């Protein structure tokens, strides 16, 4: 199977920079999928989170500069863990424009297929410095959906710091229950996106919108908690701990 796995900033970085333990866990779980013969593409945020502690000045471009400083630090951590498991990893920085420009898109697919056929782990992030707009957390959610659709992945797994969608706001309502399966993403499902990210932008909503895009184009999407050990392996089985969004048959 071909998996696209997206890991969010909040799952791998904190105030003091990267959470190396979490990176170790992610790479270990990817290595287990590799051993079973699966293909994995990782879409990882965390460049800004890794760079911010080193960029202590006021500037309207602070986040972009932090991304430039943090991206190699982020990659260094992944490469370090991957090497311990004899996995070769490569970095790809893309823009959403690359999916609308036919030549760029063909080139992207060609290079990604080549990496996957040689068992190299592609680690994708948005090319934050070259992006014209300001940077927002959660931009990688939709980007990962575009990657999954573009590469015809079997599954998109979006890992965050929540277990998935709940029937009620889990932060305030003890009777809330985790929704295991979603067959149709409609306004009712979107109204259950309670969690906000640190910067106050709709954290869960961005993920559900990414799931909507991917499932419409035939890619099953799972949202789960990156802090739960074995979360990726669960995606292979019916007992995934999180919310599974069924793909539309196309
Ligand atoms: N590309 C940004 C980073 O690596 C984050 C975008 C996102 O959180 O989705 O820090």
Topology:
Elements: E1 2-7, H1 9-12, E2 13-14, E3 17-18, H2 20-35, E4 39-44, H3 47-51, H4 62-84, E5 89-94, H5 102-117, E6 121-126, H6 139-150, E7 155-160, E8 181-182, H7 187-190, H8 203-216, E9 220-225, H9 231-234, E10 242-245
Parallel strand pairs: 1-4, 1-7, 4-6, 5-6, 7-9, 8-10
Antiparallel strand pairs: 2-3, 9-10
Helix pairs in contact: 2-4, 6-8
The protein binds glutamic acid (GLU).
How big a fraction of the residues is strand?
15-25%
Order of helices and strands: EHEEHEHHEHEHEEHHEHE
**CATH fold title of the largest domain:** Carbamate kinase
> Total number of β-strand segments?
10
How many individual domains?
2
Task: Give the bound compounds.
Answer: glutamic acid
CATH architecture of the largest domain: 3-Layer(aba) Sandwich
**Rounded average pLDDT:** 92
General form? globular
Percent helix range: 25-40%
Rg, nearest Å: 17 Å
Give the biggest beta sheet. 8 strands, mixed
CATH class of the largest domain: Alpha Beta
Structural class: alpha/beta
Q: Could you give the distance between the termini?
A: 18 Å
Low-confidence stretches: none
Spatial order of the strands forming the largest sheet: 5-6-4-1-7-9-10-8
CATH superfamily of the largest domain: Acetylglutamate kinase-like
EC number: 2.7.2.11
Protein name: Glutamate 5-kinase
Family: Belongs to the glutamate 5-kinase family.
Binding site for substrate: 45, 128, 140
């Amino acid at each position: 199977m071909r998996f696209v796995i997206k890991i969010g900033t909040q799952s791998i970085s904190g105030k003091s920079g990267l959470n190396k333990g979490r990176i170790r866990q992610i790479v270990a779980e990817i290595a287990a999928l590799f051993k079973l013969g699966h293909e994995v593409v990782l879409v990882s945020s965390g460049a800004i989170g890794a760079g911010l502690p080193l960029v202590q000045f006021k500037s309207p471009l602070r986040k972009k500069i932090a991304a430039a400083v943090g991206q190699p630090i982020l990659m260094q951590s992944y490469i370090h863990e991957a090497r311990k498991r004899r996995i070769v990893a490569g970095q790809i920085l893309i823009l959403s424009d690359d999916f609308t420009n036919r030549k760029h898109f063909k080139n992207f697919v060609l290079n990604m297929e080549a990496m996957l056929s040689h068992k190299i782990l592609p680690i994708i992030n948005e090319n934050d410095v070259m992006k014209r707009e300001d940077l927002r957390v959660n931009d990688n959610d939709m980007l990962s959906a575009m990657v999954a659709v573009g590469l015809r992945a079997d599954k998109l797994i979006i890992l965050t710091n929540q277990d998935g969608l709940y029937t009620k706001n889990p932060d305030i309502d003890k009777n809330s229950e985790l929704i295991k399966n979603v067959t149709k993403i409609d306004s009712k499902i979107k109204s259950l996106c309670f969690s906000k990210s640190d910067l106050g932008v709709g954290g869960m909503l961005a993920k559900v919108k990414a799931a909507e895009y991917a499932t419409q184009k035939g890619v099953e999407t799972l949202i789960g908690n990156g802090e739960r050990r074995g979360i990726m392996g669960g995606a292979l089985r019916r007992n995934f701990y999180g919310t599974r969004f069924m793909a539309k048959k196309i």
